[in-house]
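MODEL INPUT / OUTPUT PAIR
PAIR INDEX: 1
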Amino acid sequence: MKRAPFAALLLGAVTVFGFAPFGLFPLPVVTLALLFLLWRRTESPRQSALLGFSWGLGFFLAGVSWVYVSMHDIGGMAAVLAALATFLFSAYLALYPALAGYLFGRFRSGTPWRDALLAAGAWTLSEWLRGWVFTGFPWLGIGYSQTPPSPLAGFAPVLGVYGVCLLTALIGALLAAGWRNARILGAVAVIVVAGLSLRFVAWTEPEGPPITVALLQGDIPQSLKWDPENLSLSVQTYLKLAREHPAQVTVLPETAIPLLFDRIPREVLQALTVHGDVILGTAIRKRGDRYTNGAVALTPDRAVQAYSKVHLVPFGEFVPPGFGWFFGLVNIPMADFTAGAPDQKPLIVDGQKMMPDICYEDLFGEEIRRGLPEATMLVNLTNTAWFGHSLAQPQHLQISRMRALETGRPMLRATNTGMTAAVAPDGSVTAVLPPFTADALTVEVRGYRGLTPFARVGNMLAILLALAACLPAWRSRRTG
């Protein structure tokens, strides 16, 4: 077992190839199966936790390496400090698979099927905790690797991303328990066939006529975006894109024009709405000197609706208590936003009810479903210039695909540098712009109505199933 931690570290790093942009969706099943096999050979909960930590460290160092890009390349933090911060952040995230390993080592029964259920349940519960502790960071949850064409994508509208995580981990655990066992292979086949069958279920249905939407991608470098001398670059870029790509609805990304909304010249707003309604990512002034990261819907008759971001990014959009010193090390403009109310309504544009989410808000499916059943479409506005040429862009698009699956709604993405895309309710990408290009993606899209099972109950069902999966091993230990 001396080399097991290093093997687990490599398995975690390799798992990143199961996610976008690589898309080798069977790979996480294999790497989890090998990790669970290592767990079965440990002699104590502490050893299992160490292997879980090693797996997680390799996984997050490889998968969220864009944190270094954001802090050093874009934010200006010293390279040594940015590398240390990235390592510490990855080490913190690795504590969650370590927790799963500890629970497995503590409660395993020695019976293959009970222990397979325990491994899958503990893994899912640890990912769920990662999704809300300290405001949550569910990025690279295992379930996200199973977007189409994975057969497990069929479970997303029913169980959500954590349910897909549970089934992914369960298949891996079953294979680790006995991949030559006919009953185990039969159970895996049942899960796969059920997922494929669910892909043919239409949980929601189209509503209203299709509309044309232009999703603008300005490709404004972060180094220039907040420089007052380069304000005209943002304004002229988006005015030009809107003029050259007329549509019924035009969507600009997060903080597309780097001014408070009430300071944007009226003639700019009028020019944007010449052809139809507009959704504009912008900072919105509140009482006093407070402001929110928001989206404003404008119509040619000057009607205004607004949405304010609810789930803010620690260190990027607000200062956690006791961490004011951090902003002396990195340059992050407008890093003290105020959160919006959680019960906001969709923005009504051209007869459709679009529910905005800004930047990484679309990581939180439980929060996205708050806009349902009213919302007929979802729209994500983000500024991905913060992450440079990294894995963050394709990974974020994959997250949006999961939200479309869970809600049975189209997801439209307007980004600054990529990936600007249109996602169908079945999670397929119908159109996407090349990253790091200034262009517009014009698509025809219809709204949808109805509720998926996930939209009705959220994560509750998946978490109850994960708890239930842990019970047989726990009861066996108590009675044994």
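PAIR INDEX: 2
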Amino acid sequence: MTQANPVRRSSRDPEVLRSVLQSWLAARLGVAADVSDIAGTEANGMSSDTVLFRASWQDADGVAHDDALVARVAPDPADVPVFPSYDISGQFEAVRLVGSLSTAPVPEVLWCEPDASLLGAPFFVMRRVDGLIPPDVLPYNFGGNWLYDAAAADQRRLQDSTVAAIAALHGIDDSAQRFAFLERSDPGDTHLHRHVAHTRAWYDMVAADGCPSPLVEQGFTWLEQRWPAYESEPVLSWGDARIGNVIYDDFTPLALLDWEMAGLGPRELDVAWLVFAHEVFQELATGLELAGMPDFLRLDDVCAHYTSLTGYEPRDLDFYRRYAALQWGIVFLRTGRRQAHFGEREMPADPEDLIYNKAQLERLFAD
């Protein structure tokens, strides 16, 4: 997920992280190991703590290793987590399976540690991938960055190759069986009903922690009254399918990141999320009287390319775009509350003032 302004991600001490990771890695490998260059990241995303580090060791065959690695750690409960719970083992297994079952590019995951006693939360480790990420702060469509300044043909190549990566995820056979561990346990007789019920439970947690929103609740009512008559077969849904969660090289994805929202559901969940994530930034840009990138990630273009790759034409996108909008409202409520926790902003009297695209949501749910 994203935020229009920088937000602190963690209160964890870097030296404690280094010491614990070094001891853990040595025990995992069965040989002495050295961990160094502990750092956070200014890259996008805040749902989990991201720890960059180097690890060196010599294996039993005498081969020396010196690797750039990344640990993804579930947030400390005291740091106002974005989501109610974090299935680190499920994220690890999802990325591992995507890497083995599809052509969608993901980082190579190495080890998963479910024991929360080491760092205060479960974590997994993967190889670092070097490349470029479209910035969130300031948003890429505000100007002055590699994507905004690129030629139109390169911007289109990035768009089409990202859609192709999502299509590759959705093309994994027997997703409902292979990724059954991602199935929502919330009430509902279809994957989409359970998905929305899961989101409602997430909102209820956010509201109970001081951020109720009549506007978000109005959105849930809108969805209930306009439920799609058709629901596609369940596929692996990345969940946070936006370009700010992709590492690129030459305008082509190298790695799809941030799998906290992964689940099973209709194809339209990811297609609409990809488009609406850009619409949020475009709304912010036009509000500041900036041109933005109005011809980028247009719904018709994305759907046409997705259909050409998969043979499936996305349906009921008015519903899915508004569902994405509702979830973005919840994200802004929670990340704004998180900023207040770290003293980076004052908590407003009306929690809805935390929603950066409030006017956009008001328009979408006006009827």
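PAIR 2 NOTE: DSSP finds ten helices and nine strands in the chain.
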